[in-house]
Protein backbone atom coordinates (compact mmCIF):
# COMPACT_ATOMS: atom_id res chain seq x y z
CA UNK A 1 0.00 0.00 0.00
CA UNK A 2 1.58 3.25 -1.14
CA UNK A 3 1.63 6.09 1.37
CA UNK A 4 1.06 8.81 -1.24
CA UNK A 5 -0.25 12.32 -0.63
CA UNK A 6 -1.43 14.99 -3.03
CA UNK A 7 0.24 18.24 -1.94
CA UNK A 8 -1.28 21.45 -3.22
CA UNK A 9 -0.42 25.12 -2.89
CA UNK A 10 -2.57 27.99 -4.20
CA UNK A 11 -2.51 31.76 -4.45
CA UNK A 12 -5.70 33.78 -4.88
CA UNK A 13 -5.94 37.47 -5.74
CA UNK A 14 -8.89 39.49 -4.44
CA UNK A 15 -9.85 43.18 -4.37
CA UNK A 16 -12.19 45.00 -1.98
CA UNK A 17 -13.53 41.84 -0.34
CA UNK A 18 -14.58 40.62 3.09
CA UNK A 19 -14.32 36.87 2.62
CA UNK A 20 -14.65 35.69 6.21
CA UNK A 21 -16.10 37.85 8.94
CA UNK A 22 -15.57 37.64 12.70
CA UNK A 23 -18.74 39.16 14.15
CA UNK A 24 -19.24 42.59 15.67
CA UNK A 25 -16.43 45.10 15.35
CA UNK A 26 -16.17 46.38 18.91
CA UNK A 27 -13.62 49.03 17.91
CA UNK A 28 -15.99 50.73 15.47
CA UNK A 29 -18.02 53.89 16.06
CA UNK A 30 -20.94 52.29 14.25
CA UNK A 31 -23.53 50.33 16.22
CA UNK A 32 -23.81 47.94 13.27
CA UNK A 33 -20.26 47.08 12.28
CA UNK A 34 -18.71 43.79 11.24
CA UNK A 35 -15.03 42.90 11.53
CA UNK A 36 -13.16 40.59 9.20
CA UNK A 37 -10.98 37.75 10.42
CA UNK A 38 -7.47 38.99 11.20
CA UNK A 39 -4.40 37.63 12.91
CA UNK A 40 -1.08 39.13 13.96
CA UNK A 41 2.44 37.84 13.44
CA UNK A 42 5.68 39.66 14.23
CA UNK A 43 3.70 42.82 14.91
CA UNK A 44 1.95 42.79 11.50
CA UNK A 45 -1.71 42.20 10.71
CA UNK A 46 -2.85 39.58 8.20
CA UNK A 47 -6.36 38.85 7.00
CA UNK A 48 -7.44 35.25 6.59
CA UNK A 49 -10.18 32.82 5.69
CA UNK A 50 -10.58 30.02 8.21
CA UNK A 51 -9.80 26.49 7.12
CA UNK A 52 -13.40 25.57 7.99
CA UNK A 53 -14.76 28.22 5.60
CA UNK A 54 -12.47 27.02 2.78
CA UNK A 55 -13.72 23.46 3.32
CA UNK A 56 -17.30 24.71 3.13
CA UNK A 57 -16.59 26.39 -0.24
CA UNK A 58 -14.91 23.18 -1.42
CA UNK A 59 -17.86 21.01 -0.41
CA UNK A 60 -20.33 23.37 -2.12
CA UNK A 61 -18.26 23.33 -5.32
CA UNK A 62 -18.28 19.52 -5.34
CA UNK A 63 -22.05 19.54 -4.96
CA UNK A 64 -22.81 22.23 -7.55
CA UNK A 65 -20.15 21.57 -10.16
CA UNK A 66 -19.31 17.86 -9.78
CA UNK A 67 -22.88 16.82 -8.83
CA UNK A 68 -21.92 15.19 -5.50
CA UNK A 69 -24.84 14.23 -3.29
CA UNK A 70 -23.81 15.59 0.09
CA UNK A 71 -24.34 13.67 3.28
CA UNK A 72 -27.42 15.02 5.13
CA UNK A 73 -26.80 16.85 8.40
CA UNK A 74 -28.81 15.97 11.52
CA UNK A 75 -29.17 18.44 14.36
CA UNK A 76 -29.54 16.96 17.86
CA UNK A 77 -29.63 19.29 20.87
CA UNK A 78 -26.22 21.00 20.92
CA UNK A 79 -24.51 18.80 18.35
CA UNK A 80 -24.80 18.20 14.61
CA UNK A 81 -23.50 15.35 12.52
CA UNK A 82 -23.66 13.98 9.01
CA UNK A 83 -24.99 10.56 8.06
CA UNK A 84 -21.44 9.15 8.51
CA UNK A 85 -21.86 6.83 5.55
CA UNK A 86 -18.75 7.08 3.35
CA UNK A 87 -19.97 4.24 1.15
CA UNK A 88 -22.91 6.30 -0.09
CA UNK A 89 -21.66 9.86 0.40
CA UNK A 90 -18.30 10.85 -1.07
CA UNK A 91 -18.04 13.95 1.13
CA UNK A 92 -18.18 11.78 4.27
CA UNK A 93 -15.25 9.85 2.80
CA UNK A 94 -13.16 12.88 1.84
CA UNK A 95 -14.02 15.36 4.63
CA UNK A 96 -14.39 12.98 7.57
CA UNK A 97 -17.04 12.79 10.30
CA UNK A 98 -17.94 11.91 13.88
CA UNK A 99 -21.30 10.46 14.89
CA UNK A 100 -22.57 8.89 18.09
CA UNK A 101 -25.60 6.64 17.65
CA UNK A 102 -27.21 3.34 18.51
CA UNK A 103 -26.88 0.44 16.10
CA UNK A 104 -28.20 -3.10 15.88
CA UNK A 105 -25.59 -5.73 16.77
CA UNK A 106 -24.84 -8.53 14.32
CA UNK A 107 -24.01 -12.15 14.98
CA UNK A 108 -21.20 -14.13 13.32
CA UNK A 109 -23.39 -14.75 10.26
CA UNK A 110 -24.11 -11.04 9.84
CA UNK A 111 -27.70 -11.26 11.10
CA UNK A 112 -29.21 -8.99 13.79
CA UNK A 113 -28.85 -10.32 17.32
CA UNK A 114 -32.11 -10.80 19.20
CA UNK A 115 -33.00 -10.54 22.89
CA UNK A 116 -35.31 -12.95 24.73
CA UNK A 117 -38.34 -11.07 23.45
CA UNK A 118 -37.19 -11.33 19.86
CA UNK A 119 -36.25 -7.67 19.55
CA UNK A 120 -33.06 -6.48 17.90
CA UNK A 121 -30.21 -5.88 20.33
CA UNK A 122 -28.71 -2.40 19.95
CA UNK A 123 -25.51 -0.89 21.31
CA UNK A 124 -24.07 2.59 21.54
CA UNK A 125 -21.48 3.19 18.85
CA UNK A 126 -19.38 6.19 17.87
CA UNK A 127 -17.98 6.23 14.36
CA UNK A 128 -15.27 8.71 13.47
CA UNK A 129 -13.13 9.32 10.43
CA UNK A 130 -10.05 11.52 10.22
CA UNK A 131 -10.41 13.58 7.07
CA UNK A 132 -8.14 12.47 4.19
CA UNK A 133 -8.31 16.10 3.02
CA UNK A 134 -6.39 18.48 5.26
CA UNK A 135 -6.06 22.18 4.54
CA UNK A 136 -4.64 25.36 5.99
CA UNK A 137 -6.39 28.65 6.42
CA UNK A 138 -6.15 31.00 3.45
CA UNK A 139 -4.05 33.92 4.70
CA UNK A 140 -2.73 37.09 3.12
CA UNK A 141 0.88 36.76 2.02
CA UNK A 142 1.67 40.38 2.90
CA UNK A 143 0.41 42.37 5.86
CA UNK A 144 -2.97 44.04 5.38
CA UNK A 145 -4.80 46.73 7.31
CA UNK A 146 -8.50 46.35 6.44
CA UNK A 147 -10.36 49.57 5.74
CA UNK A 148 -13.56 50.21 7.64
CA UNK A 149 -16.07 51.56 5.15
CA UNK A 150 -19.66 52.39 5.82
CA UNK A 151 -22.82 51.61 3.93
CA UNK A 152 -26.44 52.36 4.64
CA UNK A 153 -29.89 50.89 4.29
CA UNK A 154 -31.78 53.85 2.84
CA UNK A 155 -34.76 52.29 1.05
CA UNK A 156 -37.12 52.61 4.00
CA UNK A 157 -38.92 55.79 5.05
CA UNK A 158 -37.19 57.98 7.59
CA UNK A 159 -33.51 58.08 8.45
CA UNK A 160 -31.13 55.71 6.75
CA UNK A 161 -29.52 52.97 8.83
CA UNK A 162 -25.72 53.08 8.54
CA UNK A 163 -23.49 50.06 9.09
CA UNK A 164 -19.77 49.49 8.89
CA UNK A 165 -17.74 46.70 7.34
CA UNK A 166 -14.12 45.81 6.81
CA UNK A 167 -12.84 45.54 3.23
CA UNK A 168 -9.41 44.62 1.91
CA UNK A 169 -7.41 43.72 -1.18
CA UNK A 170 -4.82 40.97 -0.89
CA UNK A 171 -2.92 38.12 -2.46
CA UNK A 172 -3.64 35.15 -0.22
CA UNK A 173 -2.05 31.72 0.09
CA UNK A 174 -3.38 28.33 1.11
CA UNK A 175 -2.15 24.77 1.10
CA UNK A 176 -3.76 21.35 1.33
CA UNK A 177 -2.94 17.66 1.43
CA UNK A 178 -5.07 14.71 0.29
CA UNK A 179 -4.18 11.26 1.61
CA UNK A 180 -4.53 9.04 -1.47
CA UNK A 181 -4.16 5.79 0.47
CA UNK A 182 -7.01 6.77 2.78
CA UNK A 183 -9.57 7.67 0.09
CA UNK A 184 -12.22 4.93 0.00
CA UNK A 185 -10.28 2.91 2.58
CA UNK A 186 -11.75 2.35 6.03
CA UNK A 187 -10.89 0.79 9.37
CA UNK A 188 -13.23 -0.33 12.12
CA UNK A 189 -10.96 -1.26 15.00
CA UNK A 190 -11.17 0.27 18.43
CA UNK A 191 -8.99 3.38 18.29
CA UNK A 192 -10.05 7.01 18.31
CA UNK A 193 -10.49 8.22 14.75
CA UNK A 194 -10.25 4.69 13.35
CA UNK A 195 -13.75 3.32 13.92
CA UNK A 196 -14.76 4.45 10.45
CA UNK A 197 -17.47 1.88 9.80
CA UNK A 198 -20.07 0.25 11.98
CA UNK A 199 -20.55 -3.49 11.71
CA UNK A 200 -23.56 -2.98 9.46
CA UNK A 201 -21.70 -0.66 7.09
CA UNK A 202 -18.72 -3.02 7.00
CA UNK A 203 -21.04 -5.86 5.97
CA UNK A 204 -22.66 -3.62 3.36
CA UNK A 205 -19.23 -2.72 1.96
CA UNK A 206 -18.09 -6.31 1.74
CA UNK A 207 -21.39 -7.40 0.15
CA UNK A 208 -20.94 -4.64 -2.45
CA UNK A 209 -17.51 -5.83 -3.58
CA UNK A 210 -15.10 -4.16 -1.16
CA UNK A 211 -11.94 -6.08 -0.26
CA UNK A 212 -9.91 -6.41 2.91
CA UNK A 213 -6.23 -5.46 2.81
CA UNK A 214 -3.51 -5.53 5.44
CA UNK A 215 -2.91 -2.30 7.34
CA UNK A 216 0.85 -1.94 6.97
CA UNK A 217 1.01 0.65 9.76
CA UNK A 218 -1.06 -1.26 12.35
CA UNK A 219 0.08 -4.91 12.47
CA UNK A 220 -2.54 -7.66 12.51
CA UNK A 221 -5.33 -5.35 11.42
CA UNK A 222 -7.30 -5.18 8.20
CA UNK A 223 -8.66 -2.25 6.19
CA UNK A 224 -11.79 -2.28 4.04
CA UNK A 225 -11.21 -0.79 0.57
CA UNK A 226 -13.88 -0.04 -2.03
CA UNK A 227 -13.29 -0.40 -5.76
CA UNK A 228 -10.57 1.63 -7.45
CA UNK A 229 -12.84 3.39 -9.94
CA UNK A 230 -14.80 5.07 -7.15
CA UNK A 231 -11.66 6.03 -5.22
CA UNK A 232 -10.06 7.57 -8.31
CA UNK A 233 -13.20 9.58 -9.08
CA UNK A 234 -13.44 10.94 -5.55
CA UNK A 235 -9.79 12.01 -5.55
CA UNK A 236 -9.85 13.63 -9.00
CA UNK A 237 -13.21 15.32 -8.40
CA UNK A 238 -11.74 16.88 -5.24
CA UNK A 239 -8.97 18.43 -7.35
CA UNK A 240 -11.30 19.41 -10.22
CA UNK A 241 -13.51 21.36 -7.79
CA UNK A 242 -10.74 23.97 -7.42
CA UNK A 243 -11.38 25.18 -10.98
CA UNK A 244 -14.75 26.67 -10.06
CA UNK A 245 -14.62 27.02 -6.29
CA UNK A 246 -16.54 30.04 -5.02
CA UNK A 247 -17.60 31.47 -1.69
CA UNK A 248 -16.99 34.14 0.88
CA UNK A 249 -19.02 36.62 2.88
CA UNK A 250 -20.63 39.75 1.39
CA UNK A 251 -20.54 38.40 -2.16
CA UNK A 252 -23.56 40.51 -3.17
CA UNK A 253 -21.62 43.77 -2.72
CA UNK A 254 -18.01 42.56 -2.54
CA UNK A 255 -17.87 39.67 -4.99
CA UNK A 256 -14.41 38.13 -5.11
CA UNK A 257 -12.99 35.42 -7.34
CA UNK A 258 -11.45 32.82 -5.05
CA UNK A 259 -10.31 30.36 -7.73
CA UNK A 260 -6.52 29.85 -7.77
CA UNK A 261 -4.43 32.27 -9.80
CA UNK A 262 -1.32 30.18 -9.12
CA UNK A 263 -1.24 26.52 -8.19
CA UNK A 264 1.32 23.79 -7.52
CA UNK A 265 0.20 20.16 -7.47
CA UNK A 266 2.48 17.25 -6.68
CA UNK A 267 2.34 13.75 -5.22
CA UNK A 268 4.73 12.95 -2.40
CA UNK A 269 5.69 9.81 -0.52
CA UNK A 270 5.57 11.63 2.82
CA UNK A 271 3.08 13.82 4.66
CA UNK A 272 5.29 16.91 4.91
CA UNK A 273 4.19 19.82 2.73
CA UNK A 274 7.19 21.13 0.76
CA UNK A 275 5.68 24.36 -0.64
CA UNK A 276 4.61 26.27 2.47
CA UNK A 277 7.10 29.15 2.05
CA UNK A 278 7.24 29.81 -1.69
CA UNK A 279 5.16 33.00 -1.39
CA UNK A 280 6.87 35.77 0.55
CA UNK A 281 6.46 39.40 1.56
CA UNK A 282 8.69 42.44 1.17
CA UNK A 283 8.69 46.18 1.80
CA UNK A 284 9.29 48.23 4.92
CA UNK A 285 5.92 47.14 6.34
CA UNK A 286 5.80 43.67 4.72
CA UNK A 287 3.11 45.10 2.44
CA UNK A 288 4.12 43.52 -0.88
CA UNK A 289 3.44 39.91 -1.84
CA UNK A 290 5.60 38.01 -4.27
CA UNK A 291 6.32 34.51 -5.50
CA UNK A 292 9.80 33.34 -4.50
CA UNK A 293 11.08 31.23 -7.40
CA UNK A 294 14.32 30.49 -5.55
CA UNK A 295 12.34 29.07 -2.62
CA UNK A 296 10.29 26.96 -5.04
CA UNK A 297 13.48 25.66 -6.67
CA UNK A 298 14.97 24.87 -3.27
CA UNK A 299 11.86 22.93 -2.22
CA UNK A 300 11.91 20.91 -5.43
CA UNK A 301 15.64 20.20 -5.12
CA UNK A 302 15.59 19.33 -1.42
CA UNK A 303 12.56 17.03 -1.68
CA UNK A 304 13.26 15.62 -5.13
CA UNK A 305 13.43 12.05 -3.84
CA UNK A 306 10.07 12.43 -2.08
CA UNK A 307 8.10 13.29 -5.22
CA UNK A 308 6.22 10.64 -7.18
CA UNK A 309 5.75 11.60 -10.81
CA UNK A 310 5.73 15.16 -12.13
CA UNK A 311 5.07 18.48 -10.42
CA UNK A 312 2.38 20.54 -12.14
CA UNK A 313 2.47 24.33 -11.92
CA UNK A 314 -0.38 26.49 -13.20
CA UNK A 315 -0.53 30.27 -13.49
CA UNK A 316 -3.26 32.58 -14.73
CA UNK A 317 -2.14 35.14 -17.34
CA UNK A 318 -2.14 38.64 -15.88
CA UNK A 319 -1.19 37.44 -12.40
CA UNK A 320 2.43 38.09 -11.38
CA UNK A 321 3.50 38.14 -15.03
CA UNK A 322 6.87 39.55 -13.92
CA UNK A 323 7.66 36.00 -12.75
CA UNK A 324 7.03 34.39 -16.15
CA UNK A 325 10.65 34.33 -17.30
CA UNK A 326 11.89 32.93 -13.98
CA UNK A 327 9.21 30.21 -14.05
CA UNK A 328 10.08 29.26 -17.62
CA UNK A 329 13.75 29.05 -16.65
CA UNK A 330 12.90 26.86 -13.65
CA UNK A 331 10.87 24.50 -15.81
CA UNK A 332 13.70 24.27 -18.34
CA UNK A 333 16.11 23.24 -15.57
CA UNK A 334 13.74 20.43 -14.49
CA UNK A 335 12.16 19.71 -17.88
CA UNK A 336 11.49 16.04 -17.12
CA UNK A 337 10.16 16.83 -13.68
CA UNK A 338 7.93 19.93 -13.98
CA UNK A 339 5.11 21.05 -16.26
CA UNK A 340 3.99 24.70 -16.53
CA UNK A 341 0.45 25.30 -17.81
CA UNK A 342 -2.65 27.36 -17.25
CA UNK A 343 -4.53 26.71 -14.00
CA UNK A 344 -7.11 24.36 -15.51
CA UNK A 345 -4.55 22.51 -17.63
CA UNK A 346 -2.36 21.94 -14.58
CA UNK A 347 -5.31 20.49 -12.66
CA UNK A 348 -6.37 18.29 -15.60
CA UNK A 349 -2.86 16.98 -16.22
CA UNK A 350 -2.29 16.27 -12.55
CA UNK A 351 -5.57 14.35 -12.38
CA UNK A 352 -4.45 12.19 -15.32
CA UNK A 353 -1.27 11.36 -13.41
CA UNK A 354 -3.30 10.70 -10.26
CA UNK A 355 -5.36 7.99 -11.96
CA UNK A 356 -2.21 5.86 -12.25
CA UNK A 357 -0.96 6.58 -8.72
CA UNK A 358 -3.94 5.26 -6.76
CA UNK A 359 -3.65 1.54 -6.00
Instruction: Give the overall shape, derived from the CA principal axes.
Output: flat
Rg, Cα atoms, Å? 24 Å
Average per-residue pLDDT, rounded, comes to: 90
Q: Helical content, roughly?
A: 10-25%
**How is the main sheet built?**
12 strands, mixed
Give the DSSP E fraction (strand runs of 2 or more residues).
25-35%
Distance between the termini: 7 Å
Which residues sit in consecutive blocks of at least 5 with pLDDT less than 50? none
Number of strands: 21
Q: Could you say which structural class the secondary elements and strand pairing correspond to?
A: alpha+beta
Question: Order of SSEs, N→C?
Answer: EEEEEHEEHEEEEEEEHEEHEEEHEHEH
Q: Can you walk through the features of this model?
A:
The longest helix has 15 residues, at 51-65. The strands form 5 sheets. Strands 1, 2, 3, 4, 5, 10, 11, 12, 13, 17, 20 and 21 form a 12-stranded mixed beta sheet that branches. Strands 14-16-15 form a 3-stranded antiparallel beta sheet, covered by helices on one side. The protein is flat, with a radius of gyration of 24 Å. Helix 4 (228-240) runs antiparallel to helix 7 (343-355). It has 7 helices and 21 strands. The protein has one domain (5-96, 131-184, 226-355). By secondary structure, it is of the alpha+beta class.
Amino acid sequence: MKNLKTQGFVLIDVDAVALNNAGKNTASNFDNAVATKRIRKNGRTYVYVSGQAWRSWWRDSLQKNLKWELSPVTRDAKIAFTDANPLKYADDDVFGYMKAAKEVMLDEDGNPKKDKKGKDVAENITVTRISPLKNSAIISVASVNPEENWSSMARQEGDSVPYGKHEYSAIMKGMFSLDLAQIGTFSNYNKTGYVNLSAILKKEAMDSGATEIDDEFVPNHKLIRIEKEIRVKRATDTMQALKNISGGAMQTNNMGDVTPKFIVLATTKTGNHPFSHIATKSGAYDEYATLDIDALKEAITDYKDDFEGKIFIGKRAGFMDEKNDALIKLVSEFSEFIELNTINEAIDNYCEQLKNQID
